[in-house]
From TrEMBL, chain A:
Signal peptide: none annotated. This is ABC transporter permease. Keywords: Cell inner membrane, Cell membrane, Membrane, Transmembrane, Transmembrane helix. Gene3D superfamilies: STAS domain. Belongs to the MlaE permease family. InterPro entries: ABC_MlaE_roteobac, Permease_MalE, STAS_dom, STAS_dom_sf. PROSITE patterns: STAS. PANTHER family: ABC TRANSPORTER PERMEASE (PTHR30188:SF3), ABC TRANSPORTER PERMEASE PROTEIN-RELATED (PTHR30188). The keyword Transcription does not apply. Pfam families: MlaE, STAS. It is a multi-pass membrane protein.
TrEMBL record, chain B:
Keywords: ATP-binding, Nucleotide-binding, Transport. Pfam families: ABC_tran. InterPro entries: AAA+_ATPase, ABC_transporter-like_ATP-bd, ABC_transporter-like_CS, P-loop_NTPase. Belongs to the ABC transporter superfamily. The keyword Phosphoprotein does not apply. GO terms for molecular function: ATP binding. Residues 15-252 form the ABC transporter domain. This is ABC transporter ATP-binding protein.
């Protein structure tokens, strides 16, 4: 038996008697507000309003709030409004909610143009701060590494092994699979395009050089930034959120030493290994396609490969790997430490960690390309 | 199901738990637990740390799977509900988690408004006013409304979480240690608020607490959990008279005597 809230009014001279009935509860909020509004309108022109609550079936905080608000609004119009017949518990509730205006939070208005310029300014300052922080953090990590190197007893081997398993070992299947596929695609495209010049055998040079110098290390770094970089940021960030990092600090443990060095070291060790596996998988894929699709037998492929690549080609890729690892590790840790109290901020930093790492990996790769070209390596 | 439709003879039961067994892996936390919570009462729930008070609360709420037994809320077996009637029941209870469980990316006011937006059809004005009302009712300053949980003190988190638990004027509230982390005056106000709401809205309160003051001042009945069972339940005098060693230590220890002496 649910009865709608209802306010019936009855005029006697300049006095209005409003008899309320029904359930003045949150579930019927729109009707409650409508009835209160109707009462307000009906009281127009009267001098005194008596609101009879004796037939109200149920009253909750919402109902009490709206009633008391109505009484106030009547008062503000110069009417004398009173409740009569309220049950004891309704009386207490009305006193408990006691209508009062809440100060509106000031709404600050800006023009679009100003907002836009402010955003640009903030982004520039933010980038500058990122670079400064990254550099100073690099210093901290290097200092931490040196401290650990000087006192190897402080080195956390189990943590490193655990991280290596997460970063390198568990990443092997997906990274080799992707590299294998990319190797296949490059070889297929190479054969297809080179056929037209009758230069089909050069696909071996193409695949060999491209994979060893650039593709393997780039693919691996991007995958690691997505897999492990995001995980580092999320782990460190949620520890930051729950004050676990502060707990480490007050125990006299250095969060850089405990959390970050094992992770960064695991990346520095793991990424070259993954890069090596990735290049082997890509070469295998390339060789397979060259054989099936291009008719280049494995013996010929291997012989040509030997002629096409030098030791330096192989090393260029591997030399880059630890630097990529450092970049990913630093960005991931820094973003993790930048997490504020909310879940939203954690999500934002993880995204930003992955995006920044991938961008920096590509940038660093470009710098290396220029450097190696300059030294003719 | 308004209260007046029910027979007045025996007290109406809001939550009925029978033969409940809950465990994690090898470990059994509670076994053969029976408990009734009557409608409109404030039940204080005590027990040593780690006996499973929070787990029992979570089991009633359906957050922890039970191995055996039945839980009825408002006379409906929670295992036999359709999704829509389950939702209807969820709308009728409010929960204050032990650690607040506020949504960290929303402000306090938005936190309070989450259930309101979900279940009620309110005008923006009323939504704002009602949220502010609840925030002030639980004793928070109005400027706390725009803060995020990370910027609140421990006691403020408790209050904000209570404001959210009360957002829909629920019929049952589950409070997991509502007054821990509050100063004694704040804890007293908290108790008064609960008592007022119980009187005016007919609230049923299931309150896990270690606060002896709350037990003496607002609880109608007290239940004690030990060894995975309810070791005693009833008005506080019953528990005071109990010979169970833990209850004796709890109610007649040094700290308890200090509180009881003052009442
Ligand atoms: N998800 C879980 N998995 C395994 N064990 C759990 C889990 N949750 C709780 N427990 C165990 O259940 C037991 C009861 O925990 P519970 O949190 O209910 O204690 P409590 O009575 O609320 O204590 P306190 O008063 O300190 O809050 C503890 O031994 C705890 O270790
Ligand atoms: Mg607990």
């Amino acid at each position: 038996m649910t009865t709608e809230p209802n306010a019936s009014t009855e005029q006697a001279g300049d006095e209005i008697r409003a008899a309320l009935a029904g359930r003045w509860v949150a579930a019927a909020a729109p009707e409650v507000e409508a009835q209160a509004g109707a009462l307000l309108a009906a009281a127009e022109g009267a001098r005194r309003v008596i609101i009879d609550l004796s037939h109200i079936e149920r009253l909750d905080t919402l109902g009490a709030w709206v009633l008391d608000r109505t009484r106030h609004e009547l008062g503000a119009k110069g009417l004398k409004a009173d409740f009569v017949g309220a049950r004891a518990e309704h009386r207490i509730l009305l006193d408990e909610v006691a209508y009062r205006g809440f100060a509106e939070a000031p709404v600050v208005r800006h023009s679009r143009l100003v907002d836009f310029l402010v955003d640009i300014g903030k982004a520039v300052v933010g980038t500058g701060r990122d670079i400064a922080q990254g550099t100073s953090f690099l210093g901290e990590v290097v200092a931490g590494l040196v401290r650990v190197a000087l006192r190897p007893s402080r080195f956390r081997l189990p943590a490193l092994v655990h991280q290596l398993e997460q970063v390198a070992f568990r990443g092997v299947p997906i990274i080799t699979l992707i590299s294998f596929l990319v190797g296949c695609i490059v070889a297929q495209q190479g054969i297809f395009q080179l056929q037209r010049f009758g230069a089909q055998p050069f696909v071996v040079d193409l695949v060999g050089i491209l994979v060893l110098r650039e593709l393997a290390v780039l693919l691996t770094s991007i995958m690691v930034a997505g897999r492990s970089g995001s995980a580092f940021t999320a782990e460190i960030g949620s520890m930051k959120m729950r004050e676990e990092i502060d707990a480490l600090r007050v125990m006299g443990l250095d969060p850089v030493e405990v959390l970050i060095i094992p992770r960064v070291l695991a990346l520095i060790v793991g990424l070259p290994i993954l890069t090596f596996l990735s290049s082997m998988a890509a070469l295998f894929g390339g060789g397979l396609v060259a054989w099936i699709y291009g008719g280049i037998s494995p013996e010929i492929f291997l012989a040509r490969l030997q002629g096409a690549i030098a030791m330096s080609t192989f090393l260029v890729g591997l030399i880059k790997a630890p630097f990529m690892a450092l970049v990913i590790g630093l960005i991931a840790s820094l973003e993790g430490l930048a997490v504020q109290g909310s879940a939203e901020s954690l999500g934002r930093q993880v995204t930003s960690s992955v995006v920044k790492s991938i961008f920096m990996v590509i940038l660093v790769d470009g710098l290396f390309a220029m450097f190696f070209a300059a030294i003719n390596y | 199901m308004p209260a007046e439709a029910m027979p007045e003879s025996d007290r109406e039961v809001a939550i009925r738990i029978r033969d409940l067994e809950v465990g994690f892996g090898e470990k059994t936390i509670m076994k053969g637990l029976d408990l009734d919570v009557y409608r409109g009462e404030i039940l204080g729930f005590v027990g040593a740390s780690g006996t499973g008070k929070s787990v029992l609360t979570r089991a009633i709420l359906g957050l922890v799977p039970k191995r055996r037994g039945t839980i009825e809320v408002f006379g409906e077996n929670l295992d036999e509900l359709t999704p829509s009637s389950r939702k209807a029941i969820e709308r009728r209870w409010g929960v204050l988690f032990q650690h607040g469980a506020l949504f960290s990316s929303l402000t306090v006011k938005q936190n309070v408004q989450v259930p309101m937006r979900e279940y009620l059809d309110l005008s923006e004005r009323l939504l704002d006013e009602l949220a502010m009302l609840k925030i002030e009712m639980v004793g928070l300053q109005p400027d706390a409304a725009e803060k995020r949980p990370a910027d609140l003190s421990g006691g403020m988190i408790k209050r904000a979480a209570l404001a959210r638990a009360l957002a829909l004027d629920p019929e049952i509230v589950f409070l997991d240690e509502p007054t821990s982390g509050l100063d004694p005056i704040g804890a007293g106000e908290f108790d008064d608020l609960i008592a007022t709401l119980q009187k005016t809205l007919g609230l049923t309160v299931f309150m896990v607490t270690h606060d002896l003051d709350s037990l003496y001042s607002v609880c109608d009945r007290v239940a004690a959990l030990g060894d995975g069972k309810i070791i005693a339940a009833g008005p506080i005098e019953t528990l005071l008279a109990s010979q169970h060693p833990w209850l004796r230590a709890y109610f007649h220890g040094k700290r308890a005597r200090a509180v009881a002496g003052g009442v």
